[in-house]
Amino acid sequence: MSTKSNASGEAGSVKRSLQTRHLSMIALGGSIGTGLFVTSGSTIATAGPGGALLAYMAIGIMVYFLMTSLGEMATYMPVSGSFAEYATRFVDPAAGFALGWNYWFNWAITLAVDISTTAILMHFWLPHVPGWLFSVGFLALIFILNVISVKAFGETEYWLAMIKVITVLVFLAVGLLTIIGVLGGGQAIGLRNFTVGDAPFHGGWPAGLSVFVVAGFSFQGTELIGITAVESATPETSIPKAIKEVFWRILIFYILAIAVIAALIPYMDPNLLGASETHVAMSPFTLVFQRIGLAGAASLMNAVILTSVLSSANSGMYASTRMLWAMGANGMAPRIYGKTNRRGVPLPALLLTTLVGALTFLTSILGTNVYQLLVAASGLTGFIAWIGIAVSHLRFRRALIKQGHSVDELVYHAKMFPFGPLLALVLGIVVIIGQDIPSLKAFAWDKLIISYMSIPLFIVLFTWYKLRHHTHLIPLDEIKLKD
After folding, report:
1. Are 327 and 180 in contact (CB under 8 A)?
2. What is the pLDDT of residues 419-451, one digit of tens each?
3. Angle, helix 40-76 to helix 419-433, in steps of 10 degrees
4. What kind of membrane protein is this, topologically (predicted)?
5. Residue 456, burial from CB neighbour count under 10 angstroms (0-12, 13-18, 19+)
6. Is the terminal CB of the chain with fewer CB neighbours within 10 Å at N or C?
7. Which long-range contacts (CB under 8 A, 24 or more apart) does 452-456 make?
8. Does residue 320 have a pLDDT over 60?
9. Nearby residues of 40 by Cβ (< 8 Å), 6 or more positions away
């Protein structure tokens, strides 16, 4: 059973208030974050410019196929719970249960990580103010934005994402002008840094695989387009348009940005490895802006990265709240979490998510070991969700044909089926295995448990639900394609 949204204020319903521009920016904002602004430099340092570009191109293509798979199902059946609901309907209810709770847990923990990061970023300007004050303030702000209405969330996310987009466009313009010698001293750099040392590829296949993992983390959040479908005013037109736009933007922003960074900064530059939220001056974006003599480049990028982290926290609050609401509505969580207020906001789910985020943040102050374990436990959840989307789509199409329907009945067609979901499935498994190759090779069990904790968590949830409710893989001819 799923909960379809309507525009009424009755308990259990949400509002269809998100426009195409909101969906486009939410999906795009989910993919452009600290992964691009901060850690993209370390991928070049680790695998060389060729390795970094190859990893981001491959993961970008995989993400596009996943989005088209999700888009096909979401336009045919815009339901609450997105991929967790599709796994429940098309695979096995136990798979939907495990995916839903895993995903909620992941974003609730990510929310805590993000609000912790805001304190680090604010210390760049105000080092003597206690960090917890900033974190509590930003958590309260994000809660207020989400409790007002879905439109308030959508508008906030739209403008936060816009700041990121403008920053990347300015960076690309500055970078390209520096490469050809118009800026940065008047001497053309060209592409010689692509062949310096053992570039373009550096570190062999282990380095390349580790960069695939980093690239995968950078793109996590794009599946939000499926979560937002049920609150879209026109999902049948908004979702296909948003997917098409986001694909080209991802290619332009990520691939071009990394190519510009690699052209301007040689992969052996130690600053690339030093980039982090605590060392914003080492961000490759900061380094390039400083190269042309931009005063306050580090301060500017710190502000942009702060908006990026707030955007991630805002999305995390929304995604986890909607997933918990959907599970409450279909009986996979206590029924109270399936209720909404008069504005269509799932208030009980929002309150629990905020509480878990706040408690997790508290552990970062009182007990760092517990906090690190919680963060590790949520680490691979995004990849598990991607695999769930691919498997659900393969089963959905097979059931559609088995039950005598035609692909022509679909509002939106996923690209290159079945190649797309199969590629996503294979790459998702490869990236999960490659999460911690050194520990796998050394059989370092203590490190392996931390690196791969998301997998046993998923298995425990799946097994518990299966044993309690005696579920099974749903035969193709018994899959319920429509309510």
Report:
1. no
2. 999 998 998 888 888 777 777 777 877 777 777
3. 140
4. Multi-pass membrane protein
5. exposed
6. C
7. 452/380, 453/373, 453/376, 453/377, 453/379, 453/380, 454/102, 454/106, 454/377, 454/378, 454/379, 454/380, 454/381, 454/384, 455/380, 455/384
8. yes
9. 52, 218, 254, 257, 258, 261, 284
